[in-house]
Amino acid sequence: MSEAERIYRIAVLRGDGVGVEVTGEAEKVLTAVGQRFGHTFSMMYGLVGGAAMDAAGEPLPAATLSLCRDADAVLFGAVGDPRYDDPTANVRPEQAILGLRKGLGLFANLRPLQVYPALVDASPLRPERIAGVDLIVVRELTGGIYFGEPRVEGEGRAVDTMVYTRAEVERIAHIAFKSARKRRGKVTSVDKANVLASSRLWRKTVEAVAQAYPDVTLEHRLVDSTSMSLVQRPGDFDVILTGNMFGDILSDEASVLAGSMGLLPSASLGEGAFGLYEPIHGSAPDIAGQGVANPLAAILSAAMLLRHSLGMDAEAHAVESAVAAVLEAGCRTPDIAVAGQPAITTAQMGARVIEALLDGTS
Fold first, then answer.
1. Catalytic residue at 224?
2. Total tally of structural domains belonging to the chain
């Protein structure tokens, strides 16, 4: 079968809240990519999160995991439902994403951040501080404190364990160094080696991996100083390599630089080409169903899907260029509109991106 005849199977897990809305726009963009470039995408739908709990009593049904394993890639929305918002409950919608990472062998999370010139005014930082910022956070996904052994000891003591192995650090470090080779050649490894034993193993292992990449500059930073530098001198960073919890926090902090979480995509990858792609924002139940959510993070996640899982660099670039074009043209959803600037809906933003994509100039 030729590439033109191949049908690319995409598992679509819309999830909860605004995940349904923004993923729907990303699906439309993929269909438009197929129209422009002659590809066929087959969307296969599965339940996840609160929607799956409603239908099947669990956040990640076996059928959904099987659907994902049979796909070329996964397009994911968001999980989280106020009806199940009890942190002490044994079953919660958020368990779905951890189960997907483990069940699909996804250990590396890539979160790129680019400050668009047209959105400098949407950032809370001064324009001269964020101009030209272009970085990526490479976060380890399946180790660390999120996958430790929590226990509660009576009424007044609780314990969480933070564990990393050399093999876990090596594989994520290789991804960071390979990413740096395609960018500006700099890796900042972030840890807390002055306090944590797991971080000292992290630092030692990263230094060993760096020997295989003499063309890449490596620096180590502590997580607290990194969090300050992200605000003070964000242009210093190229590739940020870090563990699960630190990466979760730092990438959310970094999202503020761009002006909105609604702009930031992500990819969760394993050993091969397969990956799961999602906006970094949550289900945002406070605005769900109102048609005001920003779909650009989901659309840019679809671009990452095209590039990383399907090897379609030109198609991914076309989507990214279309997003940049609509922002330059002044299109804004409420989260990135400044005072006095008109805002458009979720669907209208998706339509503008498709229009820019299909006119062939992007």
1. yes
2. 2
CA atoms within 13 A on the CB side of 143: 19
| pLDDT confidence band for 3 (50 / 70 / 90) | low
How is residue 2 annotated by DSSP? -
Most distant CA pair in the chain: distance in Å?
A: 64
Residue 252 falls in the annotated catalytic set: yes
> Token pair for residue 236?
């210093």
For 19-73, write each residue's pLDDT tens digit.
999 999 999 999 999 999 999 999 999 999 999 999 999 999 999 999 999 999 9
Amino acid making up residue 80: G
DSSP letter at 263 equals G
- From the list 72, 81, 248, 335, the catalytic residue is 248
Marked catalytic residue, from 54, 102, 134, 146: 146
**Which CA distances in Å does 285 have to 52, 79, 275, 300?**
16, 10, 26, 22
Please, which residues have CB within 8 angstroms of residue 339's CB and are 6 or more apart in sequence?
A: none
> In terms of DSSP bridges, do strands 275-279 and 265-269 run parallel, antiparallel, or are they unpaired?
antiparallel
Give the structural domain span for 99.
1-114+264-362
Query: pTM of the full predicted structure?
Result: 0.92
Per-residue pLDDT at 327: 96
- The domain that holds 71 is classified in CATH as 3.40.718.10
Catalytic residue chosen out of the listed positions 84, 192, 213, 238 = 192
Domain boundary among 242, 258, 274: 258
Residues 148 and 218 in one domain: yes
Asked if 72 is an active-site residue, the reply is no
Backbone angles phi and psi of 156, in degrees to 5? -120, 15
* Helix/strand/coil percentages in the chain, nearest 5: 45, 20, 35
pLDDT digits (tens, 9 = 90+) for 277-314: 999 999 999 999 999 999 999 999 999 999 999 999 99
Does 119 reside within a domain?
A: no
Q: Residue 134: inside a domain, yes or no?
A: yes
Query: How far apart (Å, rounded) are the C-alpha atoms in residues 202 and 200?
Result: 5
